[in-house]
Amino acid sequence: MPTARKLWSVMGVGALSAALAAAPTTAHAQVPVLCSETALVNAINGANANGGDTLLLTPGCTYTLTSAHGSASDGPVGLPPITTPITMLGMGTNITRDPSASAFRILEVDGTANVPGTKGQLNMTGITISGGNAVAPFPGGGIADRGGAVSLTAGSVTGNTAIAGGGIYVDNGSVTLMTSSVTGNTATNSGGGIYVNSGAVNLLVSKVNGNTPDNCAPLGSVPGCTG
Protein backbone atom coordinates (compact mmCIF):
# COMPACT_ATOMS: atom_id res chain seq x y z
CA MET A 1 0.00 0.00 0.00
CA PRO A 2 1.44 3.42 -0.93
CA THR A 3 2.43 5.65 1.95
CA ALA A 4 0.77 9.03 2.43
CA ARG A 5 4.02 10.73 1.39
CA LYS A 6 4.15 8.71 -1.86
CA LEU A 7 0.52 9.51 -2.61
CA TRP A 8 1.19 13.22 -2.11
CA SER A 9 4.14 12.87 -4.50
CA VAL A 10 1.97 11.15 -7.10
CA MET A 11 -0.73 13.81 -6.78
CA GLY A 12 1.85 16.44 -7.63
CA VAL A 13 4.24 18.85 -6.01
CA GLY A 14 2.22 21.75 -7.40
CA ALA A 15 -0.90 20.75 -5.47
CA LEU A 16 1.06 20.41 -2.25
CA SER A 17 2.72 23.77 -2.76
CA ALA A 18 -0.65 25.42 -3.32
CA ALA A 19 -2.05 23.86 -0.17
CA LEU A 20 0.95 24.96 1.88
CA ALA A 21 0.63 28.48 0.52
CA ALA A 22 -3.02 28.59 1.57
CA ALA A 23 -2.22 27.63 5.17
CA PRO A 24 -0.35 29.84 7.65
CA THR A 25 3.20 28.61 8.24
CA THR A 26 2.86 28.07 11.99
CA ALA A 27 3.60 24.34 12.18
CA HIS A 28 6.93 22.51 12.42
CA ALA A 29 7.49 19.16 10.68
CA GLN A 30 5.59 17.65 7.74
CA VAL A 31 4.17 14.32 8.88
CA PRO A 32 2.51 11.85 6.46
CA VAL A 33 -0.60 10.21 7.96
CA LEU A 34 -1.67 6.79 6.71
CA CYS A 35 -5.36 6.17 6.01
CA SER A 36 -6.49 4.90 9.41
CA GLU A 37 -8.21 6.22 12.51
CA THR A 38 -5.27 5.20 14.71
CA ALA A 39 -2.72 6.93 12.47
CA LEU A 40 -4.65 10.21 12.54
CA VAL A 41 -5.17 10.12 16.31
CA ASN A 42 -1.49 9.39 16.90
CA ALA A 43 -0.43 12.14 14.49
CA ILE A 44 -2.53 14.76 16.31
CA ASN A 45 -1.25 13.64 19.70
CA GLY A 46 2.30 13.86 18.36
CA ALA A 47 1.72 17.30 16.85
CA ASN A 48 0.31 18.62 20.13
CA ALA A 49 3.33 17.24 21.98
CA ASN A 50 5.71 18.82 19.44
CA GLY A 51 4.10 22.24 19.69
CA GLY A 52 2.63 21.94 16.20
CA ASP A 53 3.12 20.04 12.93
CA THR A 54 1.84 19.88 9.36
CA LEU A 55 -0.07 16.63 8.81
CA LEU A 56 -0.20 15.30 5.23
CA LEU A 57 -3.43 13.34 5.17
CA THR A 58 -3.81 10.56 2.60
CA PRO A 59 -5.47 11.91 -0.57
CA GLY A 60 -8.94 10.47 -1.13
CA CYS A 61 -9.00 8.76 2.27
CA THR A 62 -12.02 8.59 4.54
CA TYR A 63 -10.83 8.59 8.15
CA THR A 64 -13.72 6.87 9.94
CA LEU A 65 -13.83 7.47 13.69
CA THR A 66 -15.30 4.58 15.65
CA SER A 67 -14.94 6.09 19.12
CA ALA A 68 -14.08 9.32 20.92
CA HIS A 69 -10.37 9.95 21.45
CA GLY A 70 -10.66 13.09 23.52
CA SER A 71 -12.89 14.66 26.13
CA ALA A 72 -13.57 18.18 27.26
CA SER A 73 -15.79 20.06 29.66
CA ASP A 74 -18.45 20.11 26.97
CA GLY A 75 -18.52 16.49 25.86
CA PRO A 76 -16.55 13.81 24.00
CA VAL A 77 -14.51 14.56 20.87
CA GLY A 78 -13.71 12.16 18.06
CA LEU A 79 -10.13 13.39 17.63
CA PRO A 80 -7.80 14.68 20.34
CA PRO A 81 -8.51 18.39 20.98
CA ILE A 82 -6.18 20.68 19.04
CA THR A 83 -4.07 22.65 21.54
CA THR A 84 -1.16 23.83 19.32
CA PRO A 85 -0.81 25.23 15.76
CA ILE A 86 -1.61 22.27 13.47
CA THR A 87 -2.08 22.24 9.70
CA MET A 88 -3.94 19.36 8.04
CA LEU A 89 -3.51 19.05 4.28
CA GLY A 90 -5.96 16.80 2.49
CA MET A 91 -7.04 16.21 -1.08
CA GLY A 92 -10.57 14.89 -1.32
CA THR A 93 -10.14 13.72 2.27
CA ASN A 94 -13.02 13.06 4.65
CA ILE A 95 -13.00 12.82 8.44
CA THR A 96 -16.26 11.29 9.62
CA ARG A 97 -17.89 9.54 12.56
CA ASP A 98 -18.97 5.94 12.07
CA PRO A 99 -22.80 6.04 12.08
CA SER A 100 -22.87 3.13 14.55
CA ALA A 101 -20.49 4.83 17.00
CA SER A 102 -21.58 6.59 20.17
CA ALA A 103 -22.24 10.33 19.91
CA PHE A 104 -19.30 12.75 19.74
CA ARG A 105 -18.24 15.85 17.84
CA ILE A 106 -15.45 15.46 15.29
CA LEU A 107 -13.02 18.27 16.17
CA GLU A 108 -12.33 20.74 18.96
CA VAL A 109 -9.81 23.58 18.93
CA ASP A 110 -8.87 24.97 22.34
CA GLY A 111 -7.32 28.38 22.98
CA THR A 112 -6.20 30.12 26.13
CA ALA A 113 -9.36 32.25 26.38
CA ASN A 114 -11.31 29.08 27.23
CA VAL A 115 -8.65 26.55 28.20
CA PRO A 116 -5.65 28.14 29.95
CA GLY A 117 -2.29 27.00 28.68
CA THR A 118 -3.50 26.05 25.18
CA LYS A 119 -2.93 27.83 21.87
CA GLY A 120 -4.95 25.82 19.40
CA GLN A 121 -4.87 26.80 15.74
CA LEU A 122 -6.22 24.46 13.08
CA ASN A 123 -5.64 25.17 9.39
CA MET A 124 -7.28 22.65 7.03
CA THR A 125 -7.17 22.34 3.26
CA GLY A 126 -9.14 19.93 1.07
CA ILE A 127 -10.96 18.23 3.95
CA THR A 128 -14.61 17.39 4.65
CA ILE A 129 -15.82 17.13 8.25
CA SER A 130 -18.98 15.01 8.49
CA GLY A 131 -21.17 12.86 10.69
CA GLY A 132 -20.37 14.51 14.02
CA ASN A 133 -23.04 14.34 16.72
CA ALA A 134 -22.29 16.38 19.85
CA VAL A 135 -23.67 14.92 23.06
CA ALA A 136 -26.58 17.03 24.35
CA PRO A 137 -26.65 19.60 25.82
CA PHE A 138 -23.27 20.52 24.29
CA PRO A 139 -22.85 22.48 21.02
CA GLY A 140 -20.68 22.02 17.95
CA GLY A 141 -21.33 18.79 16.09
CA GLY A 142 -18.63 19.12 13.46
CA ILE A 143 -16.17 21.63 14.89
CA ALA A 144 -16.15 23.40 18.25
CA ASP A 145 -13.82 26.41 18.39
CA ARG A 146 -13.27 27.13 22.07
CA GLY A 147 -10.98 30.15 22.10
CA GLY A 148 -8.80 29.02 19.21
CA ALA A 149 -8.47 29.84 15.52
CA VAL A 150 -9.80 27.70 12.67
CA SER A 151 -9.41 28.05 8.91
CA LEU A 152 -10.85 25.77 6.24
CA THR A 153 -9.85 26.11 2.58
CA ALA A 154 -11.48 24.16 -0.27
CA GLY A 155 -13.34 21.96 2.21
CA SER A 156 -16.77 21.37 3.67
CA VAL A 157 -18.63 20.77 6.93
CA THR A 158 -21.70 18.65 6.30
CA GLY A 159 -24.09 16.19 7.94
CA ASN A 160 -23.26 17.10 11.54
CA THR A 161 -25.68 17.51 14.47
CA ALA A 162 -25.79 19.33 17.82
CA ILE A 163 -28.16 21.27 20.03
CA ALA A 164 -26.58 24.47 18.59
CA GLY A 165 -23.92 24.90 15.94
CA GLY A 166 -24.66 21.68 14.14
CA GLY A 167 -21.76 22.32 11.79
CA ILE A 168 -19.57 24.81 13.67
CA TYR A 169 -19.73 26.37 17.14
CA VAL A 170 -17.59 29.40 18.01
CA ASP A 171 -16.89 30.63 21.54
CA ASN A 172 -14.15 33.25 21.99
CA GLY A 173 -12.55 32.07 18.76
CA SER A 174 -12.17 32.94 15.10
CA VAL A 175 -13.17 30.91 12.04
CA THR A 176 -12.28 31.65 8.41
CA LEU A 177 -13.85 29.72 5.55
CA MET A 178 -12.24 30.12 2.13
CA THR A 179 -13.89 28.57 -0.95
CA SER A 180 -15.64 26.17 1.41
CA SER A 181 -19.19 25.20 2.37
CA VAL A 182 -21.25 24.51 5.47
CA THR A 183 -24.36 22.67 4.36
CA GLY A 184 -26.74 19.91 5.41
CA ASN A 185 -26.08 20.25 9.15
CA THR A 186 -28.74 20.20 11.87
CA ALA A 187 -29.27 21.87 15.24
CA THR A 188 -32.12 20.92 17.56
CA ASN A 189 -32.16 24.52 18.82
CA SER A 190 -30.54 27.07 16.52
CA GLY A 191 -27.50 27.62 14.35
CA GLY A 192 -27.86 24.57 12.15
CA GLY A 193 -24.81 25.60 10.16
CA ILE A 194 -22.90 27.94 12.49
CA TYR A 195 -23.59 29.23 15.99
CA VAL A 196 -21.50 32.13 17.31
CA ASN A 197 -21.57 32.50 21.07
CA SER A 198 -18.70 34.99 20.86
CA GLY A 199 -15.89 35.59 18.39
CA ALA A 200 -15.86 36.08 14.62
CA VAL A 201 -16.57 34.11 11.45
CA ASN A 202 -15.32 35.27 8.05
CA LEU A 203 -16.76 33.84 4.82
CA LEU A 204 -14.46 34.27 1.83
CA VAL A 205 -16.08 32.97 -1.36
CA SER A 206 -17.86 30.42 0.82
CA LYS A 207 -21.47 29.40 1.36
CA VAL A 208 -23.56 28.45 4.39
CA ASN A 209 -26.89 27.08 3.23
CA GLY A 210 -29.29 24.16 3.43
CA ASN A 211 -28.89 23.76 7.19
CA THR A 212 -31.73 23.08 9.68
CA PRO A 213 -33.50 24.95 11.26
CA ASP A 214 -31.37 27.91 10.10
CA ASN A 215 -27.94 28.61 8.68
CA CYS A 216 -26.35 30.98 11.21
CA ALA A 217 -27.32 32.15 14.68
CA PRO A 218 -27.77 34.54 16.31
CA LEU A 219 -29.11 36.48 13.34
CA GLY A 220 -26.43 38.76 11.94
CA SER A 221 -23.57 37.07 13.78
CA VAL A 222 -21.92 35.89 10.53
CA PRO A 223 -21.56 38.58 7.84
CA GLY A 224 -22.87 37.28 4.54
CA CYS A 225 -24.87 34.43 6.08
CA THR A 226 -28.65 34.64 5.84
CA GLY A 227 -31.62 32.48 6.76
From TrEMBL:
This is Right-handed parallel beta-helix repeat-containing protein. The lineage of its organism: Bacteria, Bacillati, Actinomycetota, Actinomycetes, Kitasatosporales. It comes from Streptomyces silvisoli. InterPro entries: Pectin_lyase_fold/virulence, POMP_repeat. Its main location: other. Keywords: Cell outer membrane, Membrane, Secreted, Signal. It is found in: Cell envelope; Cell outer membrane; Secreted. Residues 1-29 form the signal peptide.
